[in-house]
Amino acid sequence: MNLQSAARVAMVFAQTYHEENFITEDERVGLVAWARAMEPHFVDNKFGPFRRAAQIHKIPTVDPLFRVVQRRVIEAMNLSEDTPKEQQLGAYLSVISPGGAVQRHRDPTPEGTRHLRCNIFLQLPESGARPMIVDVPVSVATRSLLAFYPSELVHSSEPFEGDRERILLSFGFTVPNEHRLPIRKRQRQEWIDTPQEPLLGLG
How far apart (Å, rounded) are the C-alpha atoms in residues 20 and 147? Predict the structure, then answer.
């Protein structure tokens, strides 16, 4: 890895929060069943094929597990119940089928704020489909939480491989510029921690 690549990896590590086993297996199974039941209410994503999603406030049934996990995310991110929900996407369920991928982009946020996005991976394909943040692949596991600021970091996903879909439960919040991600429970030895200053204009 050259110096520039190492610096980019270190930057992504400093600007993301990843926690494995954020939900239990029973919670995952229940949330997947809920997502499957709500699929008739999903809409196609205009930015690419094989992608469907539904905002939570637009579906007819909200599983109680959603509220349980939402409270856990709010606590983990040092937020409060009054923290504003991100207005464009809010919280949503997403299913991406083989052949789909997330396009490279950055999300908007009102001036003076940060868009905080917290993704929980309910199901992953056999291979591929890793999140790409500033073109750095981030390895995630089923039941894990990945949090970052998509208003500052260009992000996308790898192409999918295999027949299994990726199912995601995502929470979005609008937080002040001074908000910082929690300190990691475990540091990865091969990555260097750096200050969490807002990163604008990357890509």
Answer: 12
